[in-house]
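Appendix B, example 12.
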Amino acid sequence: MNPLKSGTIDLVILAAVQEQPRYGLELAQHIGTRSGGLFELSEGTLYPALLRLSRAGLIEGQWHPTPGGGSPRKVYTLTDSGGQELERRRGEWQKLQAAVNALISRRFA
């Protein structure tokens, strides 16, 4: 089961690419590792999200040679617009997180 929804996947990808430029498989591995294995992105989920973010101008992909002479890899970087969108989505996420925490907290007023 993959608990990530489309908007959340986009947020996670934008944050991962902000840390450093990454190619597709590297993104999937990074997200899986950082989430403790909870979020495992399949190619059928990851690549449509990368295409959607690229078309929206939030990330850019450029082909880079692979060390060892393998097939080139498309490495994604965050655009200026992507950085602004990431900050907007982080703010929304923090508000959502605070609201859910308030609703599920066992503390009584």
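Helices lie at 6-19, 24-34, 43-55, 80-104. The two ends are 36 Å apart (CA to CA).
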